[in-house]
């Protein structure tokens, strides 16, 4: 019965990621639309709160830090900065529907990276499911009445860097033999330091529109709440990828896809044309087919292990 607590922990991790990931999208969009809070500054707050959260966790003996060299974590810290900054810029410049649908491209890109860089092979039927996913994203973007070229550039960069980041997270945890908290404990302050050097060149620091500007108490509260939720998102991403795989994390992410899309149309009144609806349906078909084949593949592997003498 050892599988019961293991499955329970996995379910708890997935639920925590589901709730925090959906909340962070709507909360960040609210901050961009209603308060105009600067993007890089908000990302800096997220990194700082994540760092403080992990420091508190290790002080409470929730995990024991491991000694790692800076150069071992540097590529991950850089990709973490790019991943969060570009996805937030995509959210800021696109509708929630286009932002969320563009993220579905992460799965095909991860498959491509793992095939080219790591020599991993995928069955033909798995590769074929990536066609409707890609086609659906294209149809949605093409017929989006609020299409924003700059937003699509940010979305494309976000997909590329996110894919690299998620592949490296899993690889680094196994390579360095560390868990999610131990790796993020070193990576978060490095990412925070990098962004701290960049923010003054792109955004005001003091005065109107700056991180230390005259914000209302409610705006400050929402920014801090966003940072706490971001800490939960970052920690759950590391935990899920470290205990499963980047592709599994992305397939679970597609369940969040539908809820986030619906919330965008209800809360922010994002327009939706019939052709966009077809694009979404096409992407969902590819996602469901991919999930079905991956689960069948895993069941087949388990059967072979059981039958082996």
From TrEMBL:
* Domain Sugar phosphate transporter span(s) in chain numbering: 19-290
Q: Which family does it belong to?
A: Belongs to the TPT transporter family. SLC35E subfamily.
List the membrane topology term(s): Multi-pass membrane protein
Put simply, this protein is called Solute carrier family 35 member E3
What this protein is reported to do is described as: Putative transporter.
Recorded hits in Pfam families, A to Z, give: TPT
Tell me the superkingdom of the source: Eukaryota
What parts of the sequence cross the membrane? 12-32, 44-64, 73-91, 97-119, 149-171, 183-202, 214-240, 247-268, 274-293
Q: Which InterPro entries match?
A: EmrE-like, Sugar_P_trans_dom, TPT_transporter
PANTHER family, per database record: SOLUTE CARRIER FAMILY 35
- Per the record's keyword annotation, is DNA repair included, yes or no? no
The record lists the organism as Eublepharis macularius
Provide the Gene Ontology terms for cellular component: membrane
Keywords per UniProt = Membrane, Transmembrane, Transmembrane helix
- According to its UniProt record, where is this protein located? Membrane
């Amino acid at each position: 019965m050892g599988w019961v607590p293991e499955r329970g922990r996995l379910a708890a991790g997935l639920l925590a990621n589901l709730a925090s990931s959906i909340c962070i999208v709507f909360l960040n969009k609210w901050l961009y639309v209603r308060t105009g809070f600067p993007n890089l500054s908000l990302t800096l707050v997220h990194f700082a709160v994540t760092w403080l959260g992990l420091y508190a966790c290790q002080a409470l003996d929730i995990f024991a830090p491991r000694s790692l060299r800076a150069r071992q974590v540097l590529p991950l810290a850089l990709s973490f900065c790019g991943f969060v900054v570009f996805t937030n810029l995509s959210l800021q410049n696109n509708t929630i529907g286009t932002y969320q649908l563009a993220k579905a491209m992460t799965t095909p890109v991860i498959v491509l990276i793992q095939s080219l860089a790591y020599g991993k092979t995928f069955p033909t039927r798995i590769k074929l499911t990536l066609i409707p996913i890609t086609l659906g994203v294209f149809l949605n973007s093409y017929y989006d009445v609020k299409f924003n070229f700059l937003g699509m550039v940010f979305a494309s960069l976000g997909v590329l860097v996110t894919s690299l980041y998620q592949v490296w997270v899993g690889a680094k945890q196994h390579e360095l033999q560390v868990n999610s908290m131990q790796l993020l404990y070193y990576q978060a302050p490095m990412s925070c330091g990098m962004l701290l050097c960049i923010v003054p060149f792109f955004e005001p620091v003091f005065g109107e529109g700056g991180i230390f500007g005259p914000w209302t108490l409610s705006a400050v509260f929402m920014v801090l709440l966003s940072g706490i939720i971001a800490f939960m998102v970052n920690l759950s991403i590391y935990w899920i990828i470290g205990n499963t795989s980047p592709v599994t994390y992305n397939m679970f992410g597609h369940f969040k896809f539908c809820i986030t899309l619906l919330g965008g149309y209800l809360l922010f009144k994002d327009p939706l044309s019939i052709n966009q609806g077809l694009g979404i349906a096409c992407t969902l078909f590819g996602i469901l087919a991919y999930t079905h084949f991956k689960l069948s593949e895993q069941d087949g592997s388990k059967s072979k292990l059981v039958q082996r003498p």
